[in-house]
Amino acid sequence: MTKQQFLIGAATAGGQVEGNNIHSDVYAQEYMKTGGYKEPSGDAADHYHTYREDIRMMHEAGLNAYRFSFEWARIEPEKGAFDEAEMNHYLDMIHACREYDIEPVVTLLHFVCPKWLISEGGWEADTTPAYFERYARYVAEHLKDEHVPYIVTINEANMGTLIAGYLEKIMKHTDGAGLQIGMDLEGMAAREELAKKENLEVFGVENAAVFTSPRTPHGDEIVCKAHQAAVRAIHEILPGTKCGLSLSVRDLQYTEKGKENADKDWEKDFLHYLPYMQEDDFFGVQTYTRAIFDENGEQDPAPGAEVTQMGYEYYPLCTEHVLRRVNESFKKDLLITENGIATDNDERRADYIRTAVEGLKRCKDDGIPIRGYMYWSMIDNWEWQSGYSMQFGVMSLDRETQAHTPKPSLAVLGGMRKLFEEE
Ligand code: BGC
Prior knowledge:
Elements: E1 7-11, H1 14-17, H2 25-30, H3 47-60, E2 65-69, H4 72-75, H5 84-99, E3 103-109, H6 115-119, H7 128-142, E4 150-154, H8 159-172, H9 185-203, H10 217-237, E5 242-244, E6 246-248, E7 251-254, H11 259-269, E8 282-286, E9 290-294, E10 297-298, H12 318-329, E11 333-339, H13 346-365, E12 370-376, E13 395-397, E14 404-406, H14 408-415
Parallel strand pairs: 1-2, 1-12, 2-3, 3-4, 4-5, 6-8, 7-9, 8-11, 11-12
Antiparallel strand pairs: 9-10, 13-14
Helix pairs in contact: 7-10, 12-13, 13-14
This protein binds beta-D-glucopyranose (BGC).
């Protein structure tokens, strides 16, 4: 690839498409009564076996990049015991990308962790950054000949604090009565007791601090330290690879009196992480919609606003707006590592993609160092707690036959490369 080629790709995460990641924390939770998942991931999209064909289809549609995750729980299924065959599996995914002129963008951790890590205290334990660094070193050593352009250390490093904030907001709105918005606090307390018991059985600890658990400020620091340690290790071993993290950041808008509230969220979701990104080479923006704040906080989407299957307002301009804002305080390379829409209307998806990418072109023309766009997701997949009910994909998944079929929006996505062709 020429150095400046703009990347147009799609994204996935192993936990959502590979299937049967049996040594992982999420796999264990999928089968727990208190695990919180609507249905288990099972074979998912069987991407563990279909990656070459999936990558071929992306290439045929004109894409030149693919963001996917390595699964720590496969590579290090037991503490300190690395599985060379699983590492080779991921190397082969990179080779398949090369066969089809696709640039691999690798994520080291996309929410899913080895089960043993959670038994050791997970994302609240001081030992975790060193474990993550050891895994990052092992992977980097194996990537020496692969010329991977970008590595995302941790996907949505702010997820646990976002969840903690969300729960706090819900609790505030219950007025102590526990009944508003259908919440049953007594029931919650009983479930908590049950969860402790089940966690003890499954993980050997009462508090399973998985990556997506509500995070304490101490846990947040652990995540940031793990990121920094991985960046240093990767820089040492792979000087030609750009390294960074990704965050979930919405386009925060406000009414006349809402600025203060919107600014608080920006501080919490983004600015707070800047000191830990000083040695990074790029930042991965993940954005799906906007949020509008007034003096009371965040408002629901306006009545009649178009919403996606996730309940998010349809708002593809969020990519352009967030990029411009991020660029005010982070001056290095930017990648959209995720942006997309859950809908069964593929024409709306195609429109969403066009509007989002055209916004990026305007950013680029204005001198913002935006290097690529990875649509979420390559294929309809297992959307965590929501199971298989969401359709984010530019390919469809037939769960009976495991057929993977491009939707028209896949070619629309590939066609967006033309916008950047003069480079
Ligand atoms: C996550 C993905 C998820 C997507 C859509 C992001 O928060 O990184 O794993 O599927 O959003 O909800």
